[in-house]
Specification:
Length: 124
């Protein structure tokens, strides 16, 4: 009887652990296309990134260049599928005003699908 209780308890514990550690993986099948980005652009100027994906998808953009750290606010694609971000470019800390290429990654998701776009722009 005791071994049946232990077996039942172990089964419950294993189910609880497995149930809390499983996550749903998003399929990488949502199209994200670059529409426009200004490049080259000067320091302190207004940069604008425009991507197109499925209407209603949520998109997040962030820098992936080493030494540059910024995230652009999550945005929902409009009925035309377009998502726009604008920000002022800044100098990299300690680099002054040298020409440099910055890389961005955009990740969009809707339902159980996601898509990723990587692009770059030059700041001078």
């Amino acid at each position: 009887m005791r071994s049946l209780r232990l077996l039942a308890l172990n089964t419950i514990l294993i189910s609880a652990v497995v149930g809390t550690t499983c996550i749903t993986a998003l399929a990488e099948d949502l199209t994200v296309k670059l529409v426009s980005i200004v490049s080259p652009i000067g320091y302190g100027e207004q940069e604008t990134l425009v991507v197109q994906t499925e209407a209603g998808a949520m998109c997040q953009a962030h820098a992936i260049t080493k030494g540059i750290n910024f995230n652009l606010a999550a945005r929902k694609a409009g009925s035309d599928g377009l998502v726009r971000w604008s920000w002022k470019t800044a100098a990299s800390s300690g680099k002054g005003h040298v020409m440099e290429t910055r890389q961005l990654e955009v990740v969009c998701a809707t339902g159980d699908r996601k898509g990723t776009l990587q692009t770059e722009f030059t700041v001078r």
